[in-house]
Structure formats: C-alpha cells, structure tokens
Design brief:
Layout: E1 2-4, E2 29-34, H1 35-39, E3 45-49, H2 54-66, E4 76-82, H3 95-108, H4 110-118, H5 123-127, H6 129-132, E5 133-137, H7 140-150, H8 153-161, E6 169-171, H9 173-182, E7 186-190, E8 196-200
Parallel strand pairs: 1-6
Antiparallel strand pairs: 2-3, 2-4, 5-8, 7-8
Helix pairs in contact: 2-3, 3-4, 7-9
Amino acid sequence: MNEQQPQHNPGEQPEHEASREHEPQLRPRVWIGSLADYNNGTLTGEWVDAAVDDEQLIAEAQRIVANSEDPGAEEYAIFDYDDFGDFKVGGYEQLSTIAKVARGIQEHGAAFAAWAQLHDADNGMLDAFENSYLGEYDNLEDWARQVLDAEDIEQRIAHEFGQHLAPYIRLDYEQWAQDAEFDGDIHAEQTPEGRWWMFSTR
C-alpha cells in the first residue's frame, strides 16, 4: 500500500475558530499583600481582579501597601493567584505582565495561558497569539485532516493517479502532523481535558 506524504505548511491552513462552549469562563485574579507585613508575621492584602489595565492593577497594589500596619511599608508581593490556567504567576512578577496575561486569558481562554507559559510571558509572543493559535482539536490527526482537506489533497491525488489507483493511496495524517511538530512548524499543547491546542511557530 502506498503512502502519500504531502508537504506541510500550517501557515496556510484555513481559519479555524475553536469552540469554547465547553470551557468555563476564566476570571484571573491575584492576592496582593504587603511584603513588610508578611516579613513581620502578619498578612495584609486582598484578592483583586487581574484582567484590568496595567495602571489599575498597579494602583490596587499601591492602595494595599498604603493600608499596611507597617508605616514604612513600600513593597508588595503576589502571594496567591487563581484562574490563570497553565500560567504560573511569580511572587514578584511585573504587574503589567500579570495584567496583560490576565486580559488575554479572559479574552481567549485557557489556550492563551498555555501560550503565555510556553513563552515565559514574553511581550512580543503574547502579541503574536492571535496569529499563532490554530485551534483546539481532539487529536493531532484531526488538525492535519482539516489542513489537508482545505488543500483538496484527496481530489489532487485522484487527479494525479487516476480513479483506479487513488483508493489505494493512504494519507498518514497522524504522522504528517507529528512531522510538522518535529520540524518546528507547529507546537501542540495538551489541554487539561486531554485535547490539544495547536499553535503555529512560523
């Protein structure tokens, strides 16, 4: 049996908007506390919405520090966080970075969190998410089928080899997708539910 291996080019795949109906709405928030109080054995802080403008999150941190029991308190830290998906928020993460990641998560869902974690919240890569995200799929084979179906691969095979030979030519969609990832054309990140987020790396 013959196997046909077409050249992969994920950058030219059809537009795909993954459904987020099954995904709960994420509302990222952080617990900001006064570092001076913590060092003195007490906790002064509160949960605040992180998906806000940079300036608003910074103002919240300043307000919390101003309410410290220590009159000399000047610094804050992130002591806890919630609804950031796969993204790990550091205790001394820049608030502007936290706010940008949180806004992206609220707009795009958990896939953005995985993308942010993958690239260490690099500002340029966060901006590239919309052009890089290819969608969510049950498996890599489903992604490959969508890409190749859009290129009318089976019709092209029938035209190239004729109706008598075409039925005997099998496309190895799964291997094609694996090769695309191995070659660095795509990145596949598994979701908590066992599905796959697909990203273009070109």
